């Protein structure tokens, strides 16, 4: 895809344990365009967080990239040195985490933490830093930035902390913001505010957003395109409307069918049985096959190749849902 | 009302005193306290599923603990089957234990890691003599099967099970005493979407088959709507609205209920909400606003809201604590 | 046992070897650990005297083997009573809280206000030298470690949902403590105890060396080291071999403690 801001190709990530490598993510490819909001959705352990952490190489100990490439604005990141990565982290790509309390340093004031990122990347000199800090804090909707800049993280509410974390990520005007379950720890009314903020900022700053979440509702309200992950693989990718209207992969359907949409009497749920496989004991073939109502023998031996959707995206399944399901 | 309620909570108050620094106490500063329950009242009929919904810090968990008798209220009455649970003698308390049980949020910490699943379920059965001692093993197998686990799970340790399976064990253990009311505090919040749907259906089936009443505490409105016939909405230690779930969710009478419903991200990209989200954050429960607790964030607040709102009874067995409740449902 | 980690297997094996040595070793020896033989004083190690002899002509090997008995006994008597007392105090204080908890923790603060060895020496100095008084002194000071470890574990476990669940299921306090709390808090104390034995033996030897613990002519490692102290330049073997014995015993218990930690608290990671 030309004009892609971020291009991930054939990404494989493994956990090394007792000499063996357990695959966490296999053959993941996607591209994010400038200014686009891209969602990655899946259940815990599907590799969605690992995937975006790999983009800026914030992987846990013993977890490493085993295959594939990550290109950001033409820079190869997958095997790049720390020195190459440093100017890209923050200035090119910002990141927001699930738990804003652990993502902030508890002994440094919020204002200093925002300013620190600015200084590190040489934006705005000594006094310019302060001005820019307050500007960024106003941008993320923190009331009374002067007072909050002087506060420590524990003195803020959860919503204010997440706003601060976003301010830090935005301080150097990155072209891409990675958000890993940014609203999962927040109450629903605060979640609505933060999602609205992320959408507004993206449009105003022309920044691309990758939003990782388990919540299909969050994706529906925020993203342009979405990838559905299961057991370390992208099983379907599509423009947002298509995923909800005409999902092709049976797992996407199962996920959609697991969301309560009214009382049980009116809209009973028919969840699929079982649970995702242990990464160390993934079945050969399609990892969803053991739970899949549409599986056949071929599903149990060979992972299906990628089939393109007509309107962009695609899916990996031998037995996709007929068009118009759902 | 046709039936006498199974659980009746009347004018319940609970405050947690904050630790007061010694100097503040010496200076004669008033004791500050967190408002966890302020004049809360509701009933649950036999076999009814009641949902308690609200954001963190609204007091819903404290309310559940008081209903379970784990925490004494400062004031007010909790009647279970017509009996005041605060006035029970030892035997009465023991009997109450069998009637009211709980399912916990965290399936990882609610099971003793050093006890096999079978032993954990058998323990209460044996202790309360639910079945003759010769039939305990059979009863355990029956309960495991009832919650959709193989009998072989009884020989496992909790660490060998997944989160969803552990939650099923927690449910089986709660059912072991054959309770009439099950209190579930965020019982599906820690579970993944597909597993959550399984456990929701299990709870609904159990309720139908065993004639259980359910007090389902959750922050998730979708889950409440799916499972509960009636709902109570909490904000800052007060119940702001109560009534049949379908009616309340379709036509909320309290502005907070409406804001809460509007804030839920709907899994439908064609329904992207254009309405501005509710601004601000809930005020501290230490010094809640006078009058209506929601008035500091309420888009409709007027000066009358500084006085405590009345409990406005509405058609269809519902009420809302808002001066303008009647206008909202017209 | 087959699944035990290597350090535990080794630790248990060495511990069994030490116990066998303490029980049967002296029976196999012909010499007596206290009989003086001035004809053979300060002999370097030889076939007849594998560890040499001390200034009074006693075989150092014989004395070290006999010392195993005494030093294992010191390890045992310094740790077991303290383990029981400290753990009990920690459990009661941590679970029920209140006045007893406050009192015991303030006493603990007092007990650890002095460095361990200084406190033990001071108490022995008051009570008079000897092993029994040393045991008392160690107990007075060392219960604190066990009480604190257990108490802090209890405070965590008490909040766990499974303890709450036991409450809701109508179990009595005794049952909750014995079945649900204790098994989940005792491991940390056990692990600590196995390494605490080392500290106890060191303490016993230090006090023996200072003349406050085991009294001459008893064969106790610290005492033997003290005997050899004046002859370190001429006859280093007198002090070196009991010293090596102490190190070897310490290594055994340390392996045991590590192994126990791996088995009992796998969540701490391997």
Question: Can you walk through the features of this model?
Answer:
The complex is a heterotrimer of chains A (326), B (330) and C (270). Chain A is of the alpha/beta class and 326 residues long. Chain A contains eleven helices and twelve strands. Chain A has helices at residues 48-55, 82-88, 100-103, 110-120, 126-139, 145-149, 158-170, 188-205, 216-222, 240-245, 250-257, and strands at residues 4-17, 20-33, 37-41, 63-72, 75-76, 93-96, 176-180, 208-213, 225-230, 233-239, 307-308, 314-315. In chain A, helix 4 crosses helix 5. The mean pLDDT of chain A is 89. The longest helix of chain B has 18 residues, at 193-210. Chain B is built from eleven helices and twelve strands. In chain B, the strands form two sheets. In chain B, strands 6-7-8-3-9-10-12-11 form an eight-stranded mixed sheet, with helices on both faces. With 330 residues, chain B is of the alpha/beta class. The radius of gyration of chain B is 21 Å and the shape is globular. Chain C is mainly α. Chain C has a single domain, classed as Orthogonal Bundle (MetI-like fold), CATH 1.10.3720. Helices cover 73% and strands 0% of the residues of chain C. Chain C has helices at 6-28, 60-96, 98-111, 116-127, 131-158, 161-168, 173-209, 221-229, 237-264. In chain C, helix 2 packs parallel to helix 5 and helix 7 packs parallel to helix 8 (221-229). The longest helix of chain C has 37 residues, at 60-96. Classes of the chains: A alpha/beta (326), B alpha/beta (330), C mainly alpha (270). Chains in contact: A-B, B-C. The interface between B and C is medium-sized, with 25 and 16 residues.
């Amino acid at each position: 895809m030309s004009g892609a801001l971020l291009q991930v190709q054939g990404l494989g990530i493994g956990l090394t344990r007792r000499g063996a490598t357990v695959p966490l993510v296999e053959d993941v490819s996607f591209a994010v365009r400038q200014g686009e909001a891209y969602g990655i959705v899946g259940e815990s352990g599907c590799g969605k967080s690992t995937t975006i952490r790999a983009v800026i190489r914030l992987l846990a100990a013993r977890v490493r990239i085993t295959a594939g490439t990550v290109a950001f604005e033409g820079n190869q990141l997958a095997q790049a040195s720390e020195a190459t990565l440093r100017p890209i982290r923050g200035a090119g790509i910002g990141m927001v985490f699930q738990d804003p309390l652990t993502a902030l340093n508890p002994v440094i004031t919020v204002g200093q933490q925002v300013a620190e990122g600015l200084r590190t990347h040489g934006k705005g000199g000594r006094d310019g830093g302060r001005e820019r800090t307050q500007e960024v804090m106003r941008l993320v909707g923190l009331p009374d930035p002067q007072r909050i800049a002087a506060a420590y993280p524990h003195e803020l509410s959860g919503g204010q902390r997440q706003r601060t974390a976003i301010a830090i990520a935005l301080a150097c005007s990155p072209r891409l913001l990675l958000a890993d379950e940014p609203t999962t720890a927040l109450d629903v009314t605060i979640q609505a505010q933060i999602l609205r903020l992320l959408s507004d900022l993206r449009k105003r700053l022309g920044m691309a957003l990758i939003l990782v979440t388990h919540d299909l509702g969050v994706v529906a309200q925020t993203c342009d395109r979405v990838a559905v992950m299961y057991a370390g693989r992208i099983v379907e990718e599509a423009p947002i409307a298509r995923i909800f209207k005409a999902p092709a992969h049976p797992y996407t359907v199962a996920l959609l069918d697991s969301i309560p949409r009214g009382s049980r009497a009116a809209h009973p749920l028919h969840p699929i049985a079982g649970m995702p496989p242990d990464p160390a004991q993934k079945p050969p073939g399609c990892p969803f096959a053991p739970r899949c109502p549409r599986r056949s023998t071929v599903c149990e031996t060979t992972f299906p190749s990628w089939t393109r959707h007509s309107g962009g995206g695609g899916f990996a399944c031998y037995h996709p849902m007929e068009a118009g399901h759902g | 009302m046709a039936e006498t309620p199974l659980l009746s909570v009347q004018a319940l108050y609970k405050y947690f005193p904050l630790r007061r620094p010694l100097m503040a106490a010496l200076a004669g500063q008033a004791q500050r306290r967190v408002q966890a329950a302020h004049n809360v009242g509701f009933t649950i009929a036999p076999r009814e599923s009641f949902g308690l919904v609200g954001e963190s810090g609204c007091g819903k968990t404290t309310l559940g603990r008081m209903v379970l008798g784990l925490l004494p209220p400062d004031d007010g009455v909790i009647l279970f089957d017509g009996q005041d649970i605060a006035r029970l003698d030892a035997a009465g308390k023991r009997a109450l234990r069998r009637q009211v049980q709980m399912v916990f949020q965290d399936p990882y910490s609610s099971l003793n890691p050093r006890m096999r699943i079978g032993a954990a379920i058998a323990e209460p059965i044996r202790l309360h003599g639910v079945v003759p001692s010769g039939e305990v093993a059979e009863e355990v197998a029956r309960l495991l099967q009832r919650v959709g686990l193989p009998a072989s799970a009884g020989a496992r340790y909790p660490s060998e099970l997944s989160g969803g399976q552990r939650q099923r064990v927690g449910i089986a253990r709660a059912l072991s005493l054959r309770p009439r009311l099950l209190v579930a505090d965020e019982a599906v919040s820690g579970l993944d979407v597909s597993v959550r749907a399984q456990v929701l259906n299990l709870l609904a089936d159990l309720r139908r088959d065993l004639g259980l009443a359910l007090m389902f505490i959750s922050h998730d409105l979708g889950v409440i709507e799916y499972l509960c016939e009636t709902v109570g909405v909490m904000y800052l230690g007060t119940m702001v609205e109560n009534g049949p779930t379908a009616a309340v969710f379709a036509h909320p009478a309290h502005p907070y209920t409406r804001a809460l419903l509007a804030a839920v991200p709907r899994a439908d990209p064609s329904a992207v909400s254009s309405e501005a989200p509710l601004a601000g954050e809930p005020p501290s429960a230490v010094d809640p606003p006078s009058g209506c607790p929601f008035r500091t964030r309420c888009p409709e607040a007027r000066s009358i809201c500084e006085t405590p709102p009345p409990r406005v009874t509405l058609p269809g067995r519902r009420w809302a604590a808002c001066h303008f409740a009647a206008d909202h449902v017209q | 046992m087959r699944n035990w980690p290597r350090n535990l297997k080794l630790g248990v094996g060495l511990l069994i070897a030490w116990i066998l040595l303490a029980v049967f070793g002296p029976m196999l020896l012909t010499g007596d650990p206290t009989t003086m033989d001035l004809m053979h004083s300060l002999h370097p190690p030889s076939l007849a005297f594998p560890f040499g002899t001390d200034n009074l002509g006693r075989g150092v090997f014989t004395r070290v083997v006999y010392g195993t008995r005494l030093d294992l006994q010191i390890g045992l008597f310094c740790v077991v009573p303290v383990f029981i007392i400290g753990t009990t105090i920690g459990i009661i204080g941590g679970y029920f809280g209140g006045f007893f908890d406050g009192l015991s923790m303030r006493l603990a603060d007092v007990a650890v206000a002095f460095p361990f060895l200084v406190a033990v020496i001071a108490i022995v100095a008051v009570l008079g030298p000897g092993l029994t008084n040393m045991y008392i002194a160690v107990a007075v000071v060392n219960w604190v470690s066990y009480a604190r470890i257990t108490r802090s574990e209890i405070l965590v476990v008490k909040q766990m949902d499974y303890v709450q669940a036991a409450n809701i299921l109508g179990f009595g306090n005794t049952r909750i403590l014995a079945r649900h709390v204790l098994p989940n808090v005792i491991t940390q104390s056990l692990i600590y105890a196995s390494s605490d034995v080392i500290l106890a033996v060191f303490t016993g030897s230090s006090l023996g060396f200072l003349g406050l613990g085991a009294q001459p002519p008893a064969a106790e490692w610290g005492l033997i080291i003290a005997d050899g102290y004046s002859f370190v330049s001429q006859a280093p073997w007198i002090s070196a071999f009991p010293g090596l014995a102490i190190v070897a015993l310490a290594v055994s218990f340390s392996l045991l403690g590590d192994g126990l930690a791996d088995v009992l608290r796998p969540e701490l990671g391997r």
